[in-house]
Amino acid sequence: MLKYFRSSLGWKLFLSYFVVVIVVAVTTAVTAQLSIEDAFERHMGGMSMMNSTAMMDGMMGGDSIFNSFSIAINEVLIFSIFAGGVVAILISIWITRVIVKPITELTAVSDRIAAGHYDERVDLPRSQDELAQLGDSFNHLAHNLAQAEEMQRRLIGDVTHELRTPLTTVKGSMEGLIDGVVQPDLETF
Description:
The protein is mainly alpha-helical. It has five helices and no strands. The chain has a domain of about 120 residues.
């Protein structure tokens, strides 16, 4: 089962997204834990500035304490979500580069092969995922194209060589006819 996870690009993508979600959640929780005390004290400290009568009235109604607590929690959440978002963006950029690099290399090598450089090969990291399989298939295709090109060159060389002898004979006979060395008869023609 673990081998299947290592050999499937789909599972690697799923796992990478899952890791990003977990890292964002942990970053958000840790950031909230680290900053909630300061935010709460800052907002509760603002309440101590109020006169004691207004404070007592606020405590009875609970509106001031609730508002300060809500503002502190919202402040912590905004900061935590921002920190988690930054971490998620950085991890996503790294994962994207890891996935896109082999595709970019395949594109570059395919352009060179299309230009007639059949000796080019893709050098991908050894793995069993779909990108590695595509790279292996691509290298096999390039090898077969190089062999077909070589066979074509040999065929043209062989045909050229084989045609040279009869053409030379015909040319010699024609020159002999023109020069009068060979008698024009039915066999010659």
